[in-house]
């Protein structure tokens, strides 16, 4: 018996090869809106039905841009009556909390879904097992944690925000062949080629916020946007770490603050006249505390405040000092190092981490070759 009113819990069925195949398809579909779903994760749902001639997808849904409606809602709407007796593949445990609309878990029960195969567990205390409990109480068969690690990757920021109470941090740096990131006072130094640069813009499009230090802002005057064709609207919000508020109002990120939200993390004692000039450009401010040992912005507290506003992922593209601050504070969850063929020489600024050190400290998960550039992706080692 399935649907509302069922009085017994249906035993859990083990995952099959077909289950893993459909879940893999759902995980790929979830990638569609990564970085565009506000405080909600980009989740996908596939409704699969088999009437004796083989399984077929009768409904698809992905978390809508802005975060609502959820994936289950879209998939059930597309499936209609074909959802009754079907299997739902969901990349994250269905939500269990009431808002203006009923929980997705209840919607699956009401639609007559017979079985739910889910992937990643949801650490949100409003869900965290409650979604599965609603499904089982409704008489549905539930098979959890199918391809959980693969499903967690696209929503790792959301999972970190709920699990660690801060956004996920990705530190990205371009290194010369001799381990330098630039020349102090020399402006931007071209290290990588066009393909690697395009990959960088794709990474930006998948993050909520991009962060740099005040020194990088002044020396490089970067735009910090996504410049891939057709993806200008995917540019992340921008944050500058500037405890003494040195950022001049004529920098590009200040002049374009009305178009792309730009925040400066600074101390309460910062120059009020400079603050007013930047505010007239549309810049907003985050009040921060100072680290008592260094006088720099206290990063754990800043990240906690960002998480409270719903920020789930921060891409750090700062210079050596900013990168070292995040590394020294053990706040880097993922690391991308792109090594180009150029040599800068002894006058260059040495990177706070190189590929050899990263291999020891982090776990190498991917490695690519883009022309003459080597692209390395690392993740935090499991505790």
TrEMBL record:
Claim: DNA repair is one of the keywords in the record: no
Question: Which cofactors?
Answer: Zn(2+)
In short, the EC number is 3.5.4.26, 1.1.1.193
Q: Which residues form the active site?
A: 72
Binding residues for Zn(2+): 70, 95, 104
Which residue intervals define the domain CMP/dCMP-type deaminase in the entry?
17-142
Keyword terms, alphabetized:
Hydrolase, Metal-binding, Multifunctional enzyme, NADP, Oxidoreductase, Riboflavin biosynthesis, Zinc
Name the reaction it catalyses. Answer: 5-amino-6-(5-phospho-D-ribitylamino)uracil + NADP(+) = 5-amino-6-(5-phospho-D-ribosylamino)uracil + NADPH + H(+); 2,5-diamino-6-hydroxy-4-(5-phosphoribosylamino)-pyrimidine + H2O + H(+) = 5-amino-6-(5-phospho-D-ribosylamino)uracil + NH4(+)
Q: Which InterPro entries match?
A: APOBEC/CMP_deaminase_Zn-bd, CMP_dCMP_dom, Cytidine_deaminase-like, DHFR-like_dom_sf, Eubact_RibD, RibDG_C, Riboflavin_Biosynth_HTPR
Q: Name it.
A: Riboflavin biosynthesis protein RibD
Q: Which lineage do the record's taxonomy fields give for this organism?
A: Bacteria, Pseudomonadati, Pseudomonadota, Alphaproteobacteria, Hyphomicrobiales
């Amino acid at each position: 018996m399935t649907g509302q009113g069922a009085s017994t819990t249906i035993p859990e069925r083990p995952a099959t090869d077909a289950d893993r195949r459909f879940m893999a398809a759902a995980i790929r579909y979830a990638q569609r809106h990564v970085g565009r779903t506000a405080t909600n994760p980009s989740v996908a749902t596939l409704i699969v039905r088999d009437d004796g001639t083989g399984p077929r997808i009768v409904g698809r849904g992905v978390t809508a841009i802005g975060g609502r409606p959820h994936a289950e809602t879209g998939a059930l709407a597309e499936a209609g009556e074909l959802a009754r007796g079907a299997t739902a593949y969901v990349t994250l445990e269905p939500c269990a909390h009431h808002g203006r609309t009923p929980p997705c878990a209840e919607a699956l029960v009401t639609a007559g879904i017979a079985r739910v195969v889910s992937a990643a567990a949801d650490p949100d205390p409003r869900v965290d097992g409650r979604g599965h409990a609603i499904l089982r109480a409704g008489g549905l068969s539930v098979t959890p944690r199918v391809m959980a690690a693969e499903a967690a990757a696209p929503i790792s920021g959301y999972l970190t925000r709920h699990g660690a109470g801060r956004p996920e941090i990705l530190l990205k740096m371009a290194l010369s062949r001799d381990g330098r990131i630039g020349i102090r006072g020399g402006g931007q130094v071209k290290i990588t080629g066009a393909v690697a640069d395009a990959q960088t813009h794709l990474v930006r499009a998948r993050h909520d916020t991009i962060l740099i230090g005040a020194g990088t802002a002044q020396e490089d005057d970067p735009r910090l946007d996504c410049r891939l064709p057709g993806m200008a609207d995917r540019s992340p919000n921008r944050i500058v770490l500037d405890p003494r508020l040195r950022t001049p109002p004529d920098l590009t990120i200040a002049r374009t603050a009305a178009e792309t939200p730009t925040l400066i993390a600074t101390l309460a004692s910062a120059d009020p006249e400079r603050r007013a000039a930047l505010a007239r450009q549309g810049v907003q401010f985050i009040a921060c505390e100072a680290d008592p040992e260094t006088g720099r912005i206290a990063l754990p507290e800043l990240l906690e405040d960002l998480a409270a506003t719903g920020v789930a992922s921060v891409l750090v593209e700062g210079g050596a000092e900013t990168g070292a601050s995040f590394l020294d504070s053990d706040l880097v969850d993922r690391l991308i190092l792109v090594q180009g063929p150029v040599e800068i020489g002894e006058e260059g600024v040495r990177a706070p981490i190189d590929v050899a050190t990263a291999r020891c400290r982090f776990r190498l998960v991917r490695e690519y070759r883009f022309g003459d550039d080597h692209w390395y992706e690392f993740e935090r080692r499991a505790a």
